[in-house]
Amino acid sequence: EVQLQASGGGLVQAGGSLRLSCAASGFTFDDYAIGWFRQAPGKEREGVSCISSSEGSTYYADFVKGRFTISSDNAKNTVYLQMNSLKPEDTAVYYCAAGQSGLVRVTTYYYTSVYDYWGQGTLVTVSS
After folding, report:
1. What tens-digit pLDDT sequence spans the chain (128 residues)?
2. Dihedral angle at the C-alpha atoms of 60, 63, 64, 66, nearest 10 degrees?
């Protein structure tokens, strides 16, 4: 059974930090890129970042560049999203997703349709 378990969300003040984790199981981790998306109330889900360990690639949306860092621990089948300098506009439910590495590129990583598996989401709330 494929599982993506996102965790690490919470309430933090503006300027603070959180680290999200995405623990994967049930598929060959090395064959997949892991992406992070977020969805704020009343808004569409948007791509935040993605890592493809097999390709040695990371991608970031412009609105998180320089503040968020994605990393992967392949031994633990876990991807992390370190979020620093958080802003109130970062408030959203954050989801991790797995897509085949060969399909995930800088021009596609932010499309939800590229991903095969999704986690349940973790809520991040940034207070001003």
Report:
1. 999 999 999 999 999 999 999 999 999 999 999 999 999 999 999 999 999 988 889 999 999 999 999 999 999 999 999 999 999 999 999 999 999 998 888 889 999 999 999 999 999 999 99
2. 100
CA distance 44 to 65: 20
pLDDT recorded at residue 27:
94
Task: Identify which of 96, 77, 79 has the alpha carbon closest to the alpha carbon of residue 37.
Answer: 96
Strands 46-52 and 57-60, sheet pairing:
antiparallel
Residue 94: HSE in the Cβ half-sphere, 13 Å Cα cutoff: 29
Contacts of 22 (CB under 8 A, 6+ apart): 4, 5, 6, 34, 36, 78, 79, 80, 81, 96, 119
* Sequence-ordered strand ranges (E) for 30-88: 32-39, 46-52, 57-60, 68-73, 78-83
